[in-house]
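Design a sequence for this backbone.
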């Protein structure tokens, strides 16, 4: 199993903190936005005498409510199309296990969420990367670049929309191009859409694979409550598809792990009643954080960054040869008035060797003042690092 590029530097951060250094965590997508009170209160007030298993597909009441939620967002998703999972992570494992056998191949635009490597390894599946670059903001690579990689072992294309780690939002045209390709070659299009609501500019709109006419047998959507409701610790997600054979197979995996956690489902079901004002405030806050971070990064000589359209990450190219070494040095050997920053080296988000060595992923999940301070520390650190 590959180690997580997001978490592997944690021991060095712990050492830095033991030295008395404050560490600004730009390395992980853990929002500081408060979880909706309605979700927390549902758990506090739950009158449970026996903490029982739930249905393997999750509470029927939750799936009904989730279907209604999706339909209110113009996604034609019925209760039968949903299986509740232990986080989006398990949904991805179910998707791979249900559509692929050992040594099958899945094509993924890179850089991609690092744990896709882990899920693929666990499923015995080979990742075939197709590279996107910072020069065009990590837009979808040309369709012929995908088509060249398709072999008899190719079973699916996986995208994250909006993207982690890039923040790129695929256009409707790009999604439709992928849809035509997977139908042509009888593949699955798996879309990780956990950041669907995190879109920041008025002219941009998320276009789901579930909205593509004629793609019902090929589309699989992955979702989660982690980011939408700032409930990462709940570990509740879902796999969604109208392909009955896929869902019947996914149910076998769901039965093998028995059921998703009860209290977390109670919280997630209640969270669906969160008022729209909560999301409006969250989106406004993240947009300001994004704009603050990008503006500050662009002031640093030698740093290259593009403005993400969604999620809450960006990839920054730094004037260093090896971002892994730099990230470790930040924690192990550097401080600015007893403060430092933790970033995620981006090489771990690529499957292609020796790509992204000078890039880092930054999560703008801190308050604006902390982001400004973090980038000031980063600027000073780069100057020190490059003169040592």
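Sequence:
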């Amino acid at each position: 199993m590959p180690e997580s590029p997001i978490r592997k530097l944690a021991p060095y951060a712990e050492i830095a903190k033991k030295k008395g250094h404050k560490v600004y965590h730009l390395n992980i997508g853990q929002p500081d936005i408060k979880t909706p009170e309605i979700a927390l209160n549902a758990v506090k007030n739950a009158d449970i005498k026996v903490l029982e298993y739930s249905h393997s597909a999750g509470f029927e009441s939750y799936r009904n409510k989730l279907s209604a939620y999706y339909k209110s967002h113009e996604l034609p998703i019925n209760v039968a199309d949903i299986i509740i999972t232990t986080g989006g992570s398990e949904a991805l494992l179910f998707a791979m296990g249900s559509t692929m056998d050992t040594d099958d191949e899945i094509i993924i635009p890179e850089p991609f969420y690092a744990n896709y490597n882990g899920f693929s390894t666990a499923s015995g599946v080979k990742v075939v990367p197709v590279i996107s670059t910072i020069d065009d903001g990590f837009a979808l690579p040309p369709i012929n670049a995908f088509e060249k990689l398709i072999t008899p072992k190719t079973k699916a294309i996986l995208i994250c929309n909006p993207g982690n780690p890039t923040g790129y939002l695929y256009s409707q045209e790009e999604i439709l191009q992928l849809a035509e390709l997977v139908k042509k070659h009888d593949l699955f299009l798996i879309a990780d859409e956990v950041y669907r609501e995190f879109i920041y500019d008025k002219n941009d709109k998320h276009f789901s694979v579930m909205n593509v006419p004629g793609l019902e047998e090929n589309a699989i959507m992955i979702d989660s409550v982690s980011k939408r409701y700032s409930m990462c610790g709940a570990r509740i997600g879902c796999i969604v598809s109208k392909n009955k054979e896929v869902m019947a197979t996914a149910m076998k995996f769901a039965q093998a792990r028995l059921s998703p956690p009860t209290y977390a489902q109670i919280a997630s079901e209640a969270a669906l009643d969160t008022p729209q004002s909560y999301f409006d405030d969250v989106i406004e806050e993240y947009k300001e954080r994004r704009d603050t971070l990008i503006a500050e990064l662009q002031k640093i000589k030698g740093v290259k960054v593009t403005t993400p359209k969604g999620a809450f990450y960006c990839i920054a190219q730094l004037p260093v040869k090896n971002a892994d070494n730099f990230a470790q040095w930040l924690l192990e050997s550097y401080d600015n008035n007893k403060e430092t920053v933790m970033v995620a080296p981006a090489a771990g988000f690529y499957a292609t060797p020796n790509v992204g060595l000078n890039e880092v992923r930054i999560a703008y999940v801190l308050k604006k003042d902390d982001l400004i301070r973090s980038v000031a520390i980063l600027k000073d650190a780069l100057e020190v690092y490059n003169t040592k």
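The radius of gyration is 21 Å.
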